[in-house]
What we know:
The protein is built from 14 helices and 14 strands. The chain has 516 residues and is of the alpha/beta class. It has three domains: 106-238 and 413-479, no CATH class; 245-411, Glycogen Phosphorylase B (Rossmann fold), CATH 3.40.50; 483-515. It has a five-stranded parallel beta sheet. It has a four-stranded antiparallel beta sheet with strand order 6-4-5-14. A three-stranded antiparallel beta sheet has the order 1-3-2, with helices on one face. The radius of gyration is 24 Å and the shape is globular. It starts with 10 loop residues before the first strand and ends with a helix. The model is unreliable at 1-57 (pLDDT under 50). The structure holds 2-acetamido-2-deoxy-beta-D-glucopyranose (7 copies).
Amino acid sequence: MLHGSGLARHFLEIPLWRPPLKRKPVTTATLLVLTVFLVAAFTSSLWIDTSRFFIENLTNKTIIISEKPKIPIKKIEIPLICTSENQTQTCPTNYPKTFQTEDLDPSSNPVCPDYFRWIHEDLLPWKSSGITRDMVERANRTATFRLIIIGGKAYVENYRKAIQTRDVFTIWGILQLLRKYPGRLPDLEIMFDTEDRPVIKSSDYHGPNATGPPPLFRYCGDKETLDMVFPDWSFWGWAEINIKPWDSILKDIKQGNNQSKWIDREPYAYWKGNPFVADNRQDLLKCNVSDQQDWNARLFIQDWILEGQQGFKQSNIADQCTYRYKIYVEGYAWSVSEKYILACDSVTLIVQPQFYDFFMRSMQPVEHYWPVRNDDKCKSLKFAVDWGNNHKKKAQEIGKAASSFMQEQLKMDYIYDYMYHLLNEYGKLLKFEPRIPEGAVELCSEVMACHAEGLEGRKKKFMMESLVKGPSITNPCTIPPPYEPKALAAFVRRKINSIMQVKKWEKGYWESLNKQ
Ligand SMILES: *[C@@H]1O[C@H](CO)[C@@H](O)[C@H](O)[C@H]1NC(C)=O
Ligand SMILES: *[C@@H]1O[C@H](CO)[C@@H](O)[C@H](O)[C@H]1NC(C)=O
Ligand SMILES: *[C@@H]1O[C@H](CO)[C@@H](O)[C@H](O)[C@H]1NC(C)=O
Ligand SMILES: *[C@@H]1O[C@H](CO)[C@@H](O)[C@H](O)[C@H]1NC(C)=O
Ligand SMILES: *[C@@H]1O[C@H](CO)[C@@H](O)[C@H](O)[C@H]1NC(C)=O
Ligand SMILES: *[C@@H]1O[C@H](CO)[C@@H](O)[C@H](O)[C@H]1NC(C)=O
Ligand SMILES: *[C@@H]1O[C@H](CO)[C@@H](O)[C@H](O)[C@H]1NC(C)=O
């Protein structure tokens, strides 16, 4: 700490207007997160950039926040310098290798959102053994590519073809991370699988003779597997179906939400998607409104080929927040659509999922979304919508809690910070010296974007749109510690209890209807 350094320190007292923490003892971490919300929610006219402050002391119901000691740093941009069309594009050799941030003490940075705690859980299988080269090599059974970072440069060895541009935009995302935090990622090798479903079965790695599980990155996991979850490609754009980078979509949806108030929206549950990827979705379609029945569901089939031919006019995501309730149902695995649905301000009705992505595990039923049964979808949907229309205030709160989560905790800065911490924690476990394998090529933003072609120019457009302009002048947020086993158990119990509670309400609702 910089005592006596002569840097100005301003003290600011924010009284808490209600005892916020009845349930359990408070950690500084939760308080910090709380403060960010209190300040953000409470003082829209008096905006305080909370990233500039940290909690100095905590006395009776008063949080004292003091300004961080800082040194002034000039933002720089790393321009994308492209060679002319007929020359082979190479990577520049003058990328900054380090960059001074303005916060001198990185540990004084705000604590990251709670979902970062799952990084520790995902890495738990290797915590005591570490990660050996043999383990990494064994992940090549299904990997799409191996990504190597050495001395801040990225290299990729391709093993198989990815679906669409999943690999391209995933690698692009990691290259942007390197631009954002130069010199801050360790040397490492990761194996990445861009297919949908997790494959590293934990049951294969039990028993006395079991080998250590291969560490494999992918977009989702489930309770039977050990695959590590990583943000999916669509955060940087899904060029095939014209879904823009997440940053742009968040802005569009925010604007859209402002124009379409919850109360003025259609009082039904909406879903639009491709039902042919999973039985679960076919089953959902049975709940559509017809002359004979109305389960409060309005369901539509997304025909991507037709929409592509029509220039995607019907599939603008920000225009799809016109219903009070929106259904999320998994496809072949988790679905990219989840974050767009949750951002709407509508109540998200989540059909009991099997898979999780990197942020979902921290969301709570009834607080952020409404749980819907998988085995009795229509009745469950009908009840959910009726309940919401009869509890409008609470329903709007649920919608708002989810959209605030998307806007605040899932903003792009945190996506990069999540990748940063996941890769750094992973790097700490490596027991071997990473090396560049034969057949790997160096990749950088220039090589990927300068001459990117295809998909009617959307590939290049989305890359330019999501390009990180230059190094961050602030440090990443501080990763929270792992869950205490008791706290994790309590968290999971709370989730299960909420779901049980809704099932009880639902049962009561149908019993009373049938009596009439
Ligand atoms: C916090 O404030 C109290 C009361 O002013 C003081 O006794 C205590 O030493 C302070 N703690 C720290 C860590 O500064
Ligand atoms: C509690 O707060 C009051 C009012 O701000 C202050 O006068 C008092 O000293 C505080 N008590 C402690 C133990 O810090
Ligand atoms: C690139 O090559 C093509 C044909 O090979 C030629 O017509 C074109 O003028 C060249 N462009 C530049 C910028 O050199
Ligand atoms: C995967 O690793 C094994 C063992 O190291 C090796 O024999 C095999 O060629 C690798 N497969 C691929 C696709 O690289
Ligand atoms: C473990 O390996 C030993 C020696 O190869 C073998 O005798 C034993 O049956 C194995 N145990 C299991 C559970 O596979
Ligand atoms: C919301 O809309 C109102 C008018 O419709 C406008 O004055 C206000 O600036 C908008 N707010 C945001 C955050 O876009
Ligand atoms: C569901 O019902 C609506 C209203 O009748 C209709 O427009 C829509 O096409 C139906 N969806 C499906 C998948 O049949």
